[in-house]
User: Fold this.
Amino acid sequence: MDMEKEKIRRKIKSIKSLPTLPAVAQKVSKMAENDNTSAQQLGKIISTDQALSGRVLRLVNSSFYGFPGRISSISNAIVLLGFDVVKSLIISVSVFEMMEKGVIGLWEHSLGCAIVSRMLAKRVDDCDPEEASVAGLLHDIGKVVVSMQLSENYEDIKKLIVEKKIIFSDAEKEVLGFTHQDIGGWLTESWNLPVNLQEPIAYHHQPLKAQKAKIPTAVVHVANFLTRAMGFGSGGDPWTPPLERKAWERLGLTMQDLEEIIEELGDEFESVEAESLMSEGE
Ligand SMILES: [Fe+2]
Ligand SMILES: [Fe+2]
Assistant:
């Protein structure tokens, strides 16, 4: 099995159309390592890719993002949201654009999870809401890779989900020997994303495995559960994944918090659904 796993892992790493960072984001990543680089300089480089920056601006100005119509430029977005968040948004729009037809409902599920992650993060200590939100947005990115690059296996996974009535990642384990969380972990590592994004993505189904980003991982885990439980979007299977009780406890939230969050979510989901962020006008 290990040989086989290594083979697929290598296959994943070598595929050209694998969601690599867009050229612009790679360039910007390098620049951002230099402390003397300003948000303006970064914004200028990103803006050279107009289609990409257009999509990012559209996303941050949507009701999903909570700054409706207020962010006029990429450098503005970098100042307000921070570079890591903007970089992850660039990845998100690039990746999800490629997969619109892949896993039906996954973009909505991801947006939903991003919204819930931000809401939860606002109520707990030690968790940056913007960072949590992009972790939520990218958490199932491995599923994009499975559906696009391992399409034969993807068909087998879908069959197994129905036949055995198991969740997506259990079916992946049987078919591939690894899961979309593993893929997400490899990808985010190769993209040099911060650990507060890496761990929530790699461990969103086993949140207690997180070593450094325990709270952000618990946030995305609970957010994923709530998004599925409320039936917003689809994760590629009809089942709501189990909730790890200890992860919920880690957040230190009360039942009253939960009730308020669920109430707020009803409205948020409605406005995002009405807006259809990715499809129209492009
Ligand atoms: Fe997942
Ligand atoms: Fe998910």
Q: What stands out?
A: The two ends are 44 Å apart (CA to CA).
